[in-house]
Amino acid sequence: MKKFLSLLLSAAMVTTMLTACGGTASSTTSTASASGSSTASGGTLSIWVEKSFSEDVDQLINERIEAFSEEYGVQVSAEFIAATDYMTKLNAAVEAGNVPDVTLSNPYKVVSYYPNIPYSDVTDLVDELDAERPMFEALKEGTKIEGVNYFVPFYAADSLLFVRTDLFEEAGVDLPTTWEELWDAAVAVSDPDNGVYGLGIGCGPTDEDCENSFRMMMWCNGGKLMDEEGNIVAAEDEGLRAMVEKYVELYNAGAIPPSSTTWDSGGNNKSYLMGESAMVINTSTLYNSIKDDPNYAELFENTAVINVPAGSDGSVLFGNPSGWSIMNDAKNPDAARDFIRFVSEKEWYDTYLEAIGPVFAPVYQDLAEDEVWSSGANQQAIEYVQNATGYYGYPAQTLEGRAIASKNYYSFPIARMLNSIVTGSKSIDDAIAQLDKELNDTAESVK
C-alpha cells in the first residue's frame, strides 16, 4: 500500500506539471438529460474532463457531450475539473472504487498507477478509428505501452523552439537546423554585457522545462538514462555525459543566463518575454501569450517559431499526447466507447482542433494537408507531433521501466544535476553518479 500511495502522489503531480492551467474553480458539473429517440447506448454515463486553457474551448466539449446525450439517449454527468485538482480527485475515486466511466488521460498518468493500471485496454477501438481515419504513427503506436493502448489519442501538445530573429540577423546567424548549429548560434548571439544570452534552458531545482528540453537534446544526440529493457544506464552512457558537458560549456561561455540556476517552470517564458534569452523551448502557450498581447507586438514581429532541430541521432521529441480512457470499473463501457467515437467524428473534431491549435495539435494524418495546419505555428505544431516519440524513460519499452522514469521525473533529477555542476557543488562525475543513484533508488521503491 505504501508503494501504491507513493505512485498515486506521483500521478497527482502529472496534472500540475504537464497540462495547461484550468479555471479558478476546482470543478464544474453539468448534466445532459437524454431525450433523443436513439437507444444505441442508453443508460447513464459519467465523464470527467480536465479543464483546458480556455473556457470557450471547454464549452465546445460540453456542447458535444450534450449532443451525444441527445443522439444516443444517454443521461450524461460531465464534470470539468481544474488541472491542479484532476489527479487528486481521480486518485481518490480509484482508491474508493467509485470511478467515472470516461476520463482524459495520457501516458504519464497511466504508468503512474503501476502496477495496478485502472484503465481499460482500448487498443481495438484505436485500431477501429485508425482504420477509418489514419492517425500519425507516433501517436497511434507511440502511445502504446507494452503493446497496449490505454487511451484513444485525441490531441497532443508540443514543445517548439522560439527564436529572436532580430538578434540572429544582427549576428549574421541563420536559424538552426541541427543541434550543432543551435549551440553555435547560442554563443554567436550572446551579449552578456548587455544582458542577452543565446539559449534559455534553465537548471533551477524545480525547472520542469529543463527536464523536457535537456531530454530532447540528449535523445537527439544519442544519450539516454535507460536502455530498451528498462535498465538504468545513466552512469555509463556516453551520450548523456556528452550533453551534460555541452550544457556546462554553454553556461560557462555566457550563452545561458546566470539567472537560470534559480528558474522554475516559468523561468524561460519570463526570460524570453523580457528579452534576456534569444532562444527558448516552450509550448505554444508562449506563442499565444505574445500573439494576443499588444505589449509584445514588437517581440511577436521578431519571433520565429520552429521545430526543435535534429541531432546526431536524428529527431526524438518529447511526446505529450492526451486522449480518452475508459476505466476498468466503468459502469457503462459500451456508452463510453460510443462517446469516444462521437467526439472523434471528423467534422466536429476538425472544428474543435482548429479552436485549440497550436497549443494542441491533431492526431489524424489528413489534417497535415489541411489549410488550417499548413502554415505558421499550426504547421510547426503538427510537424512536431509526427516526431514526438520520446517519453520519460525513452527508449525503455517496459511498463515498469517507464513507471520508474515517470516517478523519478517529478523530483527534477536533470535540473538538479545540472544545477549542482554549474553552481560548483558537484563535479560532472559526481553529479551523474548521483543521478544514477536516484534512478536506482526510485526503481527499488517501485518494484
Automatic annotation (TrEMBL):
CDD domains: PBP2_TMBP_like (cd13585)
One Pfam family it belongs to: SBP_bac_8
Signal peptide: 1-20
Record flagged with keyword Signal: yes
Keywords: Signal
Name listed for the protein in its UniProt record: Sugar ABC transporter substrate-binding protein
Provenance organism: Ruthenibacterium intestinale
